[in-house]
Write a structure and sequence with these properties.
It is built from seven helices and 26 strands. With 465 residues, it is of the alpha+beta class.
């Protein structure tokens, strides 16, 4: 492979000859993890274009808006707390008492977890904020065998306050999960067995997250390799998650290129995507994309610059592929949570869930794609648009790209995927491939709403590019 350089002040500079060629990388194509290995793979034929129908979920596509006109953050937080506290009280039939009064009997209250300082949570720094009281109460964990908490989490609490300044917890009540997605039986038959749709065959989806090029150049070799693989295998859908031109790219940070981020996006991404035929493509922006507004939630990329087979969605994104509901949060919420959450896990608590599974579960139980508050310093959350981050139902698939180790796992009957990054500084990364088999006809009862049960019929592979 020919070595290419980068431009410094308009002059072409050759990359170091000691740089290891991308073509010489080790373990290319290696399957690093498999979810449901008992489910078979399926190779598409050449004429499978448009076997999948993509529909945006109403009221969850963020359109372009004016930012830097922030509403009162407190109002947005209070509205969310009011809604969820009502759900908690009704679900558990809780009789709420004043947690600040000295009381040796166990009482119930609902509040928001917060920290007593600007640092991360620890068991000595956790407070429970009661918004109605505009006050906070310190929490004691001595009576709990198991817990997993983070700043901003809304919970119900059972405990005693024998001193007036500490609530000794004996139980934590989580927000109940939303219902799983259901589909009318007629639609399931049409999508899974219709001759113009899947005709009884599986659906193939490839998911990849940026960065898509190495830190020492703009050759976009991992990205081109992925598109070559896509053109060869012809999956039904390719989901690409930014950043496509990252603010963290070393040469851009140092100003060692004469091209603008928009020009790099046009030449290295858009022009390459035009070469992909007979595959539907979904593009999701990132707050790290230098050529796109950085506020979260983000509006989609402009459609007019892209080919017809490309669908631009917002960040976060919620959409359906046939009957299957996808939710995507293209901010590294897993990394942000892991640096804030505190845990004590009893051996009998939620068996089968590792820490990544528990962090993913927090997003599902909080019904929100960025439940952490205060937000991580790199996230510019526009609170007046925070309703776009709320989940309406449990999705069938939750995609959470992160710098943490890639994974695919089932959490509360939801397939949670971190595809990893396609490029990691100067080393090749990973992507994910899904094979989703049709729901068996025997489970599709006529004239009924049927749970999609995607977690039972899907194989996910994490693959080294």
């Amino acid at each position: 492979m020919e070595e290419r350089g980068f431009q410094v002040n308009g002059q072409e500079t050759q990359a170091s000859n000691t740089k290891k060629k991308f073509s010489d990388r080790e373990n290319k194509g290696k399957i690093e993890d498999i979810l449901n290995p008992n489910i078979t793979v399926y190779k598409n034929s050449a004429n499978t274009f448009k076997r999948c129908e993509i529909n945006l979920i109403p009221d969850k596509q963020v359109e372009s808006y004016r930012y830097m006109y922030q509403m009162r953050i407190l109002e947005a937080l209070d509205d969310r707390f009011s809604n969820l506290s009502t759900i908690l009280k009704d679900h558990y039939n809780l009789e709420i008492s004043d947690a600040f009064h000295i009381n040796r009997d166990e009482i119930h209250t609902v509040g928001r977890i917060c920290c007593d300082s600007e640092g991360n949570l620890n068991t000595e720094s956790v407070l429970l904020e009661i918004p109605e009281k505009r006050n906070r109460l310190r929490l004691s964990f001595d009576g709990l065998k198991s817990f997993s908490l983070f700043s901003g989490q809304i919970v119900g609490v059972e405990g005693t306050n024998s001193t007036g300044n500490h609530l000794n917890m004996s139980r934590i009540f989580e927000i109940p999960l939303l219902p799983m997605c259901k589909t009318p039986s007629s639609e399931l038959i049409e999508y899974n067995y219709g001759q113009e749709k899947l005709n009884g065959n599986p659906l193939n989806i490839v998911i990849a997250a940026g960065p898509f090029t190495f830190n020492n150049g703009f050759e976009y070799e991992p990205f081109k390799e992925l598109l070559s693989k896509v053109n060869q295998d012809k999956p039904d859908l390719l989901i690409l998650l930014g950043p496509f031109v990252s603010e963290d790219h070393l040469l851009l940070k140092e100003g060692k290129t004469s091209k603008t981020p928009g020009e790099i996006f046009k030449e290295c991404i858009i022009d390459e995507l035009c070469k992909v035929t007979n595959v539907s493509i979904v593009l999701v922006p990132s707050t790290k994309d230098l050529f796109h507004p950085f506020v979260f939630p983000q509006s989609p990329f402009p459609k007019h610059v892209l080919s017809k087979n490309v669908i631009c969605v917002s960040n976060p994104a919620q959409f359906r592929v046939n009957e299957i509901t996808f939710a995507i949060d293209n901010v590294d919420i897993l990394f942000h949570l892991i640096n804030n959450a505190i845990e004590r896990i009893d051996g009998n608590a939620k068996p089968g869930l590792d820490r990544m599974g528990r962090l993913s579960r927090h997003i599902l139980t909080q019904r929100h794609l960025y439940p952490l508050f205060p937000t991580y310093e790199e996230v510019n959350l526009e609170f007046k648009k925070s309703s776009y981050l709320e989940l309406q139902q449990l999705p069938d698939v939750l995609i959470l790209p992160s710098k943490l180790k890639s994974f695919a796992k089932v959490v509360e009957n939801v397939i949670c995927i971190n595809p990893g990054y396609l490029s990691r500084d100067e080393s090749a990364g990973t992507y994910a491939k899904m094979t989703i088999h049709p729901l068996p006809k025997t489970l599709i009862k006529e004239d009924q709403l049927i749970e999609n049960s995607v977690f039972k019929r899907t194989r996910v592979e994490i693959i080294k590019i």
